[in-house]
Fold this protein.
Amino acid sequence: MSANADILPRDLERKARLYLEHPDESPELIGTLPYLIHPPGKLSATASWLRFRDKTLLPMIERRPDDPNLPNFLTQVESILAWRATVPAENRFWKE
């Protein structure tokens, strides 16, 4: 039991640190948004982030090419995906 007790807290501490390091879901906004947009959360699966990019952001960017916020959202999603790719599977705290 003591071996598991020693491992579990370190594992949880490591995952908690990674949770705090996870990039924010939304970028800094320019003005007010004329629409509602709800990015996935930190605990959401990477597949949810990919769907959000492909099914929400990219079509919105096509329809609203002059919107200054949508490219920032896309940049934020790409930075989240890049950051997640650096985290080893055993350290991931999000759903898969």
Summary: The mean pLDDT is 93. DSSP finds three helices and no strands in the chain. Helices lie at 2-21, 46-63, 70-85. Residues 39 and 64 are 18 Å apart (CA to CA).
